[in-house]
Amino acid sequence: MAWNEEVAARDYLPAEERQQLQLKRLQHTVQRVYTSVPFYQQAMDALQIHPSHINSLADLHRLPFTTRYDLIEHYPLGLLSVPREQLSRIHASSGTRSKAKIVGYTRRDIDIWGEVCARSLACAGLQPGDILHNAYGYGLFTGGLGLHYGGEYLGMTVVPMSSGSTQRQVTFLHDMQATALCCTPSYALTIAETLSALGMSAQDLHLKCGIFGAEPWTKALCQQIEDRLGLHALDIYGLSEIIGPGVAMECIQSHQDKQADRSLHIFEDHFLPEIIDPATGEALPYGAEGELVFTTITKEGMPLLRYRTGDLCTLIAEPCTCGRTLVRMSQIKGRVDDMLIIRGINVFPAEIKRILFGFAELAPYYQILIERKHTLDSAVVQTEITPSMQTAISPQEVDSATWTDNEQIQQLQKRITQVFYAQLHLHIDIQIQPTGTLPRSEGKAIRVIDRRPT
């Protein structure tokens, strides 16, 4: 496939034209899964829904939900809508929460994946001839190959670095004069840290933008990445179950509008989005925060109806300054199943991150440790001081034996603890550690370690 004006124009279709296309594709998908996937036939029959009942996009809400538990229950390939022999590729989720969720792709699915990833890169202002340094992991994880296809489809030169060997990453970024970087936000910070350790700065690179995803990140973290790597840090959204990266993308125009809230364009000619109340499953209007749900309307290998992502966000219908007519989603604000219950209090890790990143003295590295002592749960947050703050506190080499006794560290820990209690109504112990203490991530960062017995 090749990038052309027809592909580029799909982001700017009039709403009515896109809705006609969506309905046609939805009807085809529903008919397809009803006749080829026993799970969906049984679920639709239980709701007394037949493919012939889907006469408008509003009928989408009548269809059954799909959850990650359904994928796990039908592991590995029980939800395929084509014979296994027609699959060109298998990918899988990381399996960090449970057994990996297996996804099958036909040749056409891979072509669609390349298209939406190319459209994502175009949202970032990238063009044929740009150099894409791809530091997402290759393999079962969808990040690396998806954006690799997208870069080639758009006509870019792709450097398929994968993750790891960070000093080598910096060397290739410099020597190949890459104009775009793809990786997780946490690994972008690791690259920035290595760049500095090698005596280099953003001025030694040629980066225009970074496409960062696969984990939630805050505005403060975005600013740090931009400052340290000298680029525009843009958000990309996707999940293996739907297709991988390329489901939605932030555009460079809205990103540069500092007055606007960050949002991502959903490629809704392939993925129909909804927001639902996570407790009741009721569909919510644009602007309401709830759980993000997707229906794939062009996938062949494993189409999914109303897949509950577990991600919390809002949908935005207002026009974007870039001219694209696609519905947008806000940045992910948390996960339904990420909520921690500590001593009867509901706490989202995203709220802990937001508070930590509000302290200029802290580096953007942290871990949340949950333990049960006797019958009570306790939370400990481990974080790091910034290099400049560490130098100011302890100009000499850090002595770990006396670090925790440092009065400035103790005062800072006390201030953070007070803010946690004021905003979360929960006592959380803070352990501020010297620079470079916590593990660095080459992929998705592990932020929560729950040691409570199950």
From TrEMBL:
EC class name: ligase
Domain AMP-dependent ligase C-terminal intervals: 344-452
Highest taxon of source: Bacteria
Any one GO molecular-function label of the UniProt entry: ligase activity
AMP-dependent synthetase/ligase domain mapped to chain residues: 86-294
Pathways per UniProt: Aromatic compound metabolism; phenylacetate degradation
Known catalytic reactions: 2-phenylacetate + ATP + CoA = phenylacetyl-CoA + AMP + diphosphate
Keywords: Ligase, Nucleotide-binding
Gene3D superfamilies on file: 3.30.300.30, N-terminal domain of ligase-like (3.40.50.12780)
EC number: 6.2.1.30
The keyword Ligase is annotated on this UniProt entry: yes
Keyword Nucleus: no
Pfam family, one: AMP-binding
Functional note: Catalyzes the activation of phenylacetic acid (PA) to phenylacetyl-CoA (PA-CoA).
Family: Belongs to the phenylacetyl-CoA ligase family.
Protein name (Swiss-Prot/TrEMBL): Phenylacetate-coenzyme A ligase
Organism field: Dictyobacter formicarum
